[in-house]
Amino acid sequence: MNVRKTKMLVLFGLSFLWFASYPVLGRGETQTPMPAVSTPITVNDTNKSIRVDGYLVDWPVTRMILLDQKSQVTYGMLNWKNKESFSGRIFITYDAQYLYLSAIIQKTSGIVNDNGGLSLWDGDCIELFLSSYSVTDKPNRISKNDYHIGFSPGSGCGNPQMFCFNKEKRIGGGRINARLTGHGYILEACVPLSFFEGLEIGPGKNNRFNLALDEGGSSSGNRMLQLDLTGNPQSWQNPSLWGSIQWIGKTTVSVPKNDEENLYANLVMDGTKSSTYWGRRTITGTVVDDNGKPIPGALITTWPKTETVRADKMGHFELDKVKVYDKTVVYARVDGYGTSLIAIDRKLDPVMVHLKRLPEFLTSDYAVSPAFYGQSLQVPQNGDLPGLMNRVEEWVKLLPLNFLKLIGTELLNKNQEDQFRTLDQFVAYARSLGAEPMIELPIERDNSSVAVDWVRHCNVDQNEKVIYWTIGNEPDLYAEKKVGSGFSDYNVYDYINDFREIYNSVKAVDPSILILGPELAWRYTSGEDDWFTPFMQFDGDIVNLASVHHYGAVKAAQCNPGSVLDDVRHMQTLTHGLKGRIAVNSDIYIPLVITGGNVCMESTDNTLVARVAPTAIAASKNVISATTPKPVEGSGPDSFGAAVWLVEQTGTLMKDHMPMVFFSYLSGNGALDFLSAEGAKPDYWVLRLMSTYLKGKLIWAQAQNNNVSVFATQDPKTKDVSLLIMNKGSNYYHPKILLNNKDANVSIDAGLDQTFDYEMPYYSIAVLIIKADKSHDEAVLYTKKMAQAGKPPEVLVIKPW
């Protein structure tokens, strides 16, 4: 075998330094958005044949892009020492067939990345962001025209891989290679230009572009540091923050778009069933906002489907000679507004579609969303929801919930008058607790009248202004749970058809409401277990919020400490993947929310949780001193491990700016409830801690211990800090805590000159409430020992040094 001699490679060209003195936080943490640098990176083509083998001697003279500045750190600031310990030099060129990328990475520790697919970023990795949009377009959300690709060297450069995150695709026809060096590694890859649908390359053409460099920990393998060209932790999801790339070579490439035909499209109703055809007509109208002002650029379609047009500068539109039926409705959608509709009449008078602007927390990156904390009440099997609400009221009122969701509504009394009375009681109950009500509309096959009657009663007759409604609850389990007639072989295409029928019916009653779906339990993974992608493909033009539930484990046998903590590790990968699927299948921005779930879907006896009513809960008015059931060992719904999972999941989603997060049920579901006949379970107490204290501005926090998790928020006015520390280890943890962003066991970027010395017992969760004026500091501590003894958290006084 011939062995190639390694040569010293010197790449000439301009050294690109893109940095500024920005305040740096971890990915998913809040900071003021910064304008992208306007100077484009010029990239030349090559007429040389490049062998992708990890040896760069055949590369042309290429501009060097540097990732080696402290101002570029967007995750793991305390882990970055200097450019000698971790940095990168990256080079890009192209020819008529491929985009080539090479990187010389300086790293003092081992090269670690055992992940694949969507998790490729969680270790040593190079991330490339490229948009087929021109630089004049400034979309602020990842769309189907953007490409986010990870290039991993693999552990020890033994298994290099590349993967497109937002498309959830492996890159066919490309090549990647990596090799170890004395000071890190060299990676080389090529991606077929045909992969970038819609990309236009030619002399002087510009596209949006960004790069990031991830460092995997030498022991855990998890990502511990990231450098990003923009220096902005939000760049991964906001192309308007990216810089630009300018193609200066002579090569011209125009990649066509390829809209793949869906093989199951025939299972989706086309809207003509039971409709009377009126002929080809012209539909005209205007799209306006809440105040009657025109909305330019709105996309207009009809159902049954015809063509798509865009409203002009005055909000006017015209659909010329389209097929019209007696059930035809006109849809309008645009970024920042809830998609809505209007029915047409036989005269075809001009129509006016009213769109309601989405609440700001759904379209902006809040620190901690004002809708973040929510819970569900499930109608008990006997239908006595008022009795259930009364039994748990003393517990619930002490949870400062943002949302209270009603599910299991098919169990309500079938008498319409009783249904209306119960709905009114629930809405009043939620609002008396300071929570926004959300109601599940039950799915009744081939009959949407129940949903229509409910929306009309609440929002027209009673003027209760219930904004948020879901269509169904965990429909991917309907066949398994045998929830009623017509559901024995219920599939995703049944749900897609039911969703649109109910959506059209209730939106006609109140166009301002927001509809959530598909409310899946767990079938949003891949292949036949992916209901999410087809739902977005066929109903992504109408759904207002894309909602799923999340469980740490589906089967009770899988619910152990190792697996559920591994689930937390991949939570960000999961949500980013779902956001990518939304972007690929929708032409407007649709928020993703989590509206249910638990550490495990099954009870400890391996049976799928049924809808049963709990016995009466004897709740003390002084809940903090009430007795609680003793948790079981392990990570099941009754365990302290469930509380650990809840903290990790909630904190991760908080840092990722998830607008809504509901886990588990307050009551009504049985084994998965936060409240049982004996009292509050461990996860109730940690929810109470987080919902009470972790609000306001999310600030950067980091612990230098793999067994410790930290999350911190700060009141924007008082500058008071709430710091949650969780010790998952079997040893006591006695950290030095600094609030001025300096190196310590636990470092917080709060801008306060305070130092704390706090001892954490093993298996414990604590929230430190720190006053900026040093007037009174305290900690609320909850440990596994307390949980096992049936005790609630304890309040302790702490003092700064």
Q: Which descriptor suits the 3D outline?
A: globular
Strand pairing plus helix content: what structural class?
Answer: alpha+beta
Number of helices: 12
The average pLDDT value, as a whole number, equals 86
Contiguous uncertain segments of 5+ residues: 1-36, 605-627
Q: Let me know the largest β-sheet.
A: 9 strands, mixed
Alpha carbon gyration radius: 28 Å
The end-to-end distance, rounded to whole angstroms, is 66 Å
Portion in strands: 25-35%
Helix content: 10-25%
The number of E-state strands comes to 46
Fold and architecture overview:
With 801 residues, the protein is α+β, with helices and mostly antiparallel strands. The protein has twelve helices and 46 strands. The strands form ten sheets. Strands 2, 4, 7, 8, 9, 10, 14, 15 and 16 form a nine-stranded mixed beta sheet that branches. Strands 27-28-29-30-31-32-33-34 form an eight-stranded parallel barrel, surrounded by seven helices. A six-stranded mixed beta sheet has the order 1-3-5-6-12-11, with no helix packed on it. The chain is globular.
Summarize the structure.
By secondary structure, the protein is α+β, with helices and mostly antiparallel strands.
Topology:
Elements: E1 15-16, E2 41-43, E3 64-67, E4 73-75, E5 86-94, E6 98-107, E7 125-134, E8 146-152, E9 161-164, E10 169-170, E11 175-181, E12 184-192, E13 200-201, E14 206-216, E15 223-228, E16 243-247, E17 253-254, E18 277-288, E19 299-303, E20 309-310, E21 316-325, E22 329-333, E23 337-338, E24 340-343, E25 351-354, E26 356-357, H1 360-363, E27 373-378, H2 385-396, E28 403-407, H3 416-432, E29 436-441, H4 449-461, E30 468-471, H5 478-481, H6 492-509, E31 514-520, H7 532-539, E32 545-553, H8 561-569, H9 571-585, E33 592-600, H10 640-655, E34 661-662, E35 675-676, E36 679-680, H11 682-693, E37 697-699, E38 701-703, E39 708-714, E40 721-727, E41 736-738, E42 746-748, E43 755-757, E44 764-770, E45 777-783, H12 784-788, E46 794-798
Parallel strand pairs: 1-3, 2-16, 18-25, 27-28, 27-34, 28-29, 29-30, 30-31, 31-32, 32-33, 33-34, 41-42
Antiparallel strand pairs: 3-5, 4-15, 5-6, 6-12, 7-8, 7-14, 8-9, 9-10, 11-12, 13-17, 14-15, 14-16, 18-21, 19-20, 19-22, 22-24, 23-26, 35-36, 37-39, 38-42, 39-40, 40-44, 41-43, 44-45, 45-46
